[in-house]
């Protein structure tokens, strides 16, 4: 039976509505739209229809990953097949189902649904784009790229120990709406995400109905699997609007360090712009975390650069690399990217007064070990082939507040980065 896009959207958003808990915080009300009634639980029939496209993948994921502690070893056996010729046996973890049969969703309707769920929370932070154009307008629309570590749900609730963040602020039923609201607010043409552990039951079903084509590549030994009641492994996800780009080729890369396969991954896709017929490569990655792993990250970065060198045919194809590098600008891995033969520049340096300094932070959190404020997230681009037309400014310390991130009005411990790119009409020299 036909169901309207709005009803499909509602069913997806409300699939956990029966367990939704609201925080009674007088005075905290979202300003737009006006307060709305709590959404009604969706009927089983609607839930089945809404999740049909991802049902098989989710069934597989839950069968392997739903046991909590001790599942990493079990999942690792499956994960190894994803990096071999046997990967075709488990395509649900690598490539999205064909979305052609799915009914589209109006993004405004989805945004209304999110705001209805979030009506008891504070309003979204206001962030402005900074105009960085120094030349004449491009003859084609800019390409908006969004980079974001969205915080894996299992880690946020189970391992990350955000001591100043109330547990109610981390509930997935509302936090997923905050994530979607951020994405819908900036309407990226390309979306690069890390720590995605709700790909098949949230992001792929909804974003495919908004016109995106997505790819997901999980970590072989995701720490999410050691959290009770987890939703499967976390990994990187890459989405692009199908009406703007055509996929030329795609590579899922398991990064190596010192010849050893590691737990970190990347996705690299060559896209062709339908308006200009220009091609470029977009990549997303998430490098090893923690102090003491600097040399390991450096080796991972070198491996990724070598892979991208091959994919871009020696820098003939322009490149954009998004990621949580877990590295400050003082680390070797950052210096490798800055000095690479791929001729890359970091887009967010352009927001500084001299154009040479990274932002003071892209993540700010308080754990049991203390307060952590670091610059770890970057958008790199081919500086001779591409220009940054604008970039989304960061949240101020006042906006973030004394309890830092995540919070009731921001869903992750990392800030989203958003840039508008255009092709240089006459690239000067090598790309």
Summarize the structure.
Keywords: Biological rhythms, Cytoplasm, Hydrolase, Magnesium, Metal-binding. The chain contains eleven helices and 15 strands.
Count of extended strands: 15
Strand order of the largest sheet: 1-14-15-2-3-5-4
Q: Return Rg in Å.
A: 21 Å
What structural class do helix, strand and pairing data support? alpha+beta
Characterize the biggest β-sheet: 7 strands, mixed
Order of helices and strands: HHHHHEEHHEHEEEEEHEHEEEEEHE
**Which percent range fits the helix content?**
25-40%
Low-pLDDT stretches are 16-90, 427-431
Give me the number of helical elements: 11
Judging from the principal axes of the Cα atoms, what is the shape?
Answer: globular
Question: Strand-residue fraction?
Answer: 15-25%
Mean pLDDT: 83
Distance between the termini: 52 Å
Report on the architecture of this protein.
The chain has a 7-stranded mixed β-sheet with strand order 1-14-15-2-3-5-4, with helices on one face. By secondary structure, it is α+β, with helices and mostly antiparallel strands. It has 11 helices and 15 strands. A hairpin with a 2-residue loop joins strand 6 and strand 7.
What are its keywords?
alpha+beta; 26% helix; 24% strand; disordered C terminus
SSE layout and pairing:
Layout: H1 5-13, H2 44-50, H3 55-65, H4 71-81, H5 107-117, E1 129-131, E2 143-149, H6 153-158, H7 172-186, E3 190-196, H8 199-209, E4 212-218, E5 235-241, E6 245-257, E7 260-273, E8 279-286, H9 294-311, E9 319-324, H10 332-338, E10 344-346, E11 363-367, E12 370-374, E13 377-382, E14 386-392, H11 397-400, E15 417-423
Parallel strand pairs: 2-3, 8-9
Antiparallel strand pairs: 1-14, 2-15, 3-5, 4-5, 6-7, 7-8, 9-13, 10-13, 11-12, 14-15
Cofactor: Mg(2+)
Region (Disordered): 20-43
Family: Belongs to the CCR4/nocturin family.
């Amino acid at each position: 039976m036909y169901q309207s896009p709005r009803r499909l959207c509602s069913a997806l958003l409300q699939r956990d509505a029966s367990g939704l808990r609201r925080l009674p915080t007088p005075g905290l009300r979202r300003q737009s739209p006006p307060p709305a009634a709590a959404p009604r639980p969706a009927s089983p029939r609607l839930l089945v229809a809404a999740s049909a496209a991802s049902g098989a993948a989710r069934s597989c994921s839950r069968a392997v990953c739903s046991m909590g502690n001790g599942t990493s070893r079990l999942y690792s056996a499956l994960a190894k097949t994803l990096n071999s010729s046997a990967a075709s046996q488990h395509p649900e973890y690598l490539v999205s189902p064909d979305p052609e049969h799915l009914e589209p969703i109006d993004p405004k309707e989805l945004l209304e649904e999110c705001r209805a769920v979030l009506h008891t929370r504070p309003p979204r932070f206001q962030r402005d784009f900074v105009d960085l154009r120094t030349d004449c307008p491009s003859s084609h629309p800019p390409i908006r790229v969004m980079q974001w570590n969205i915080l894996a749900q299992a880690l946020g609730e189970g391992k990350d120990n955000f001591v100043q963040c109330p547990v109610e602020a981390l509930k997935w039923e509302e936090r997923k709406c905050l994530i979607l609201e951020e994405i819908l607010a900036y309407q990226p043409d390309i979306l690069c995400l890390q720590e995605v552990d709700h790909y098949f039951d949230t992001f792929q079903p909804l974003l495919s109905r908004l016109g995106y084509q997505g790819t997901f590549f999980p970590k072989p030994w995701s720490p999410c699997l050691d959290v009770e009641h987890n939703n499967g492994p976390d990994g990187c996800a890459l989405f692009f609007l199908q009406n703007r780009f055509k996929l030329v080729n795609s590579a899922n890369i398991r990064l190596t360090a010192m010849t050893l396969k590691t737990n970190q991954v990347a996705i690299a896709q060559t896209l062709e712009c339908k308006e200009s017929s220009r091609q470029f490569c977009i990549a997303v990655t998430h490098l090893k975390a923690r102090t003491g792993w600097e040399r390991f990250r450096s080796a991972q970065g070198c491996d990724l650069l070598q892979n991208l060198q091959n994919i871009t045919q020696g820098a003939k194809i322009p490149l954009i690399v998004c990621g949580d590098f877990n590295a400050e600008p003082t680390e070797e891995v950052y210096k490798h990217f800055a000095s690479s033969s791929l001729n890359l520049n970091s887009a967010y340096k352009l927001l500084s007064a001299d154009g040479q300094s990274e932002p003071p932070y892209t993540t700010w959190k308080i754990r049991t070990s203390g307060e952590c404020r670091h610059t770890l997230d970057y958008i790199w681009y081919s500086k001779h082939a591409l220009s940054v037309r604008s970039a989304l400014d960061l949240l101020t310390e006042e906006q973030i507040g004394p309890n830092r991130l995540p919070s009731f009005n921001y869903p992750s411990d990392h800030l989203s980065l958003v840039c508008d790119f255009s092709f240089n009409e006459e690239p000067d020299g090598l790309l």
